[in-house]
């Protein structure tokens, strides 16, 4: 058995079904096409061996994979699209062309927001060692799959997959009309040749030094029917599409319009895939979460008036309902990277509201389709990927369910109070207000009385090998290096409307808290801007105390405090 695993770090797969006019599309290609995968492998060969003819190992590998229809494993998916306008000079008249004026043509790029990896499994293909090495080398050259926006990490999967989060699409052996089947473009096992991936058979001239015409250019006059390929129906996973496709819920328009917070609570958790053409660095956590909440506020005002209250969105004390018992009951907006993603780039926005959202509030959140941030050149498009009454058991943030002795910062903890003040040109530092002591106060406020130790984490351990500066380092005042060691310069939330709110920056620090006994944190974040993603603490379940201390440099132990 041979299994290939494709992981999309940005959480999206852009691809249009083979041979279908994009203007007629409603959804992207799903599941991904085996024909597209084999073309990607051959493309990887030519990329790594420019000007060379594929060797016997490459030919044997691709033909072995093309002689069997693979099973395709996928997780949950949500379909979306982006729109761009292409200049159409051909539709402009002579005068318009002279003035450099032209019309625009609308194009839609359909994509699938994927929750996990995609697997291609050939049950009856056992590769010889030399072919397996060739496959591993080709997969290492694969940087995207589908359109260039679909950044991809490809590798041979070594372990047997038995997760309930992966559903398997299996070939039916032919074409079948069914609501639970989808057509997939595949190499035809009964008639497939290596050269079919880039050329028509009639155009192959082995003795010619010239490259054959581009396959797509040749096929445009023949209904895109490639040699050695055919459409096959795949039986989708059990429960398709209700269990596997996350769709925007639709509701009937009410006769009278109640307030947005009136009605039963239908969900406490939403997750949006953050689609952007550039990597989203974690230092933009607060601007992104603020931008999402500001958009929710704008849609709320447009639908219900400027004074419409929503405690779930904003947590204003004046709008606090009687049944909102306790603090931190309104929404947490938590931009985070995908689990296991070593780059650290933000790919998901988790929204958790202990108080809960009504159907009207959810519909407002689902209207948010664009977040402008930074220079506004590259907007972020949030796509719903999960909606539930309760967060999943493996949610990457704490809700009071998970206990652990070791908790570690995933985003900087910003002390609620300033621990430094300027008196003229002199910097005044308050020892009792140091970040370590303020973190202890926050833990005590949660009712945690268990003894423990608070340690700073070296900032360089939060920088990855990507070459990107994930966090901005504080310029240390002369003579105060110890107090500001391993501190970050963080953009924080400043109360006020989006029109009047100015950008404020504070000092933040990464911490590690080790308790004597396992404890649970009933809120995911602590400190300043906690509802906007700062101060996120996650349990460290897989490392023992000795292992964890080995992973932290010696200088981290110089700043430590006891609970």
Give a description of the structure.
Helix 1 packs antiparallel against helix 2 and helix 2 crosses helix 4. Strand 16 and strand 17 form a beta hairpin. About 3% of the residues have low confidence. The protein is an alpha+beta fold and 563 residues long. The chain folds into three domains: 234 residues, 2-Layer Sandwich (Alpha-Beta Plaits); 122 residues, Alpha-Beta Plaits, CATH 3.30.70; 159 residues, no CATH class. A seven-stranded antiparallel sheet has the order 7-1-6-3-8-10-9. A five-stranded antiparallel sheet has the order 23-15-22-18-24, covered by helices on one side. The chain contains ten helices and 24 strands. Helices cover 17% and strands 26% of the residues.
Give a short synopsis of this structure.
This protein is an alpha+beta fold.
Q: Radius of gyration from the CA trace?
A: 27 Å
Query: Care to count the β-strands?
Result: 24
Task: Report strand order across the widest sheet.
Answer: 7-1-6-3-8-10-9
Task: Please state the average pLDDT score.
Answer: 84
Helical stretch tally: 10
Distance between the termini: 53 Å
Measured by DSSP, the beta-strand proportion falls in 25-35%
Structural class: alpha+beta
Overall geometry comes to: globular
Described by strand count, sense and barrel closure, the largest sheet is:
7 strands, antiparallel
* CATH architecture classification of the largest domain: 2-Layer Sandwich
Q: CATH class of the largest domain, please? A: Alpha Beta
Stretches where pLDDT falls below 50 for ≥5 residues?
542-558
**Number of domains as seen in the coordinates:** 3
Assign a percent range to the helix content. 10-25%
CATH topology of the largest domain: Alpha-Beta Plaits
């Amino acid at each position: 058995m041979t299994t290939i695993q494709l992981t999309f770090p940005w959480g999206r797969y852009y691809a249009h079904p083979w041979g279908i006019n994009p203007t007629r599309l409603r959804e992207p290609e799903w599941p991904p096409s085996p024909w597209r995968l084999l073309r990607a492998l051959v493309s990887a060969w030519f990329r790594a061996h420019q000007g060379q003819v594929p060797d016997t190992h490459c030919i044997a590998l691709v033909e072995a994979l093309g002689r069997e229809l693979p099973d395709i494993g996928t997780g949950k998916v949500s379909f979306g699209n982006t729109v761009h306008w292409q200049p159409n000079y051909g539709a402009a008249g002579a005068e318009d062309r002279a003035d450099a004026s032209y019309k625009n043509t609308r194009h839609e790029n359909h994509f699938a927001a994927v929750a996990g990896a995609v697997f291609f499994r050939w049950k009856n293909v056992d590769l010889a060692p030399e072919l397996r090495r060739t496959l591993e080398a080709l997969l290492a050259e694969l940087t995207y799959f589908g359109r260039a926006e679909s950044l991809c990490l490809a590798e041979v999967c070594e372990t047997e997959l038995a997760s309930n989060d992966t559903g398997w699409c299996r070939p039916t052996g032919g074409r079948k009309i069914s609501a639970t089947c989808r057509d997939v473009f595949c190499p035809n096992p009964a008639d497939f040749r290596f050269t079919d991936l880039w050329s028509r058979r009639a155009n192959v001239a082995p003795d010619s030094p010239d490259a054959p015409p581009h396959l797509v250019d040749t096929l445009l006059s023949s209904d895109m029917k490639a040699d050695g390929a055919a459409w096959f129906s795949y039986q989708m996973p059990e429960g398709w599409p209700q269990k596997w496709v996350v769709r925007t819920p639709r509701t009937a328009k009410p006769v009278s319009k109640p307030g947005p917070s009136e009605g039963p609570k239908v969900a406490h958790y939403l997750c949006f895939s953050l689609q952007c053409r550039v990597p989203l660095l974690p230092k933009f956590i607060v601007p992104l979460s603020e931008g999402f909440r500001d958009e929710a506020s704008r849609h709320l005002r447009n639908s219900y008036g400027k004074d419409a209250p929503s405690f779930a969105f904003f947590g204003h004390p004046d709008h606090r309902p009687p049944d909102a018992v306790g603090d931190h009951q309104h929404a947490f907006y938590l931009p985070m990277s995908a689990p296991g993603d070593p780059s650290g780039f933000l790919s998901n926005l988790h929204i958790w509201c202990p108080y809960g959202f009504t159907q009207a509030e959810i519909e407002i959140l689902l209207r948010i389709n664009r977040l402008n941030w930074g220079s506004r050149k590259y907007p972020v498009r949030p796509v719903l990927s999960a909606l539930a009454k309760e967060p999943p058991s493996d949610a990457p943030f704490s809700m009071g369910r998970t206990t652990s002795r070791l908790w570690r910062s995933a985003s900087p903890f910003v002390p609620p109070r300033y621990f430094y003040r300027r008196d003229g040109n002199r910097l005044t530092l308050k020892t009792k207000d140091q970040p370590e002591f303020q973190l202890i106060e926050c833990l005590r406020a949660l009712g945690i009385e268990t003894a423990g130790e608070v340690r700073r984490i070296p900032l360089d351990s939060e920088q990855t090998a990507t070459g990107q500066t994930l966090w901005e380092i504080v310029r240390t005042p002369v003579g105060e290096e110890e107090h500001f060691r391993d501190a970050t310069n963080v953009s924080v939330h400043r109360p006020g409307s989006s029109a009047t709110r100015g950008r404020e920056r504070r000092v933040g620090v990464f911490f590690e808290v080790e308790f004597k006994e396992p404890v649970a944190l009933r809120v995911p974040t602590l400190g300043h801007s906690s509802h906007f993603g700062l101060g996120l603490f996650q349990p460290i379940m897989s490392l023992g105390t000795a292992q964890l201390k080995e992973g932290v440099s010696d200088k981290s132990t110089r700043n430590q405090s006891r609970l």
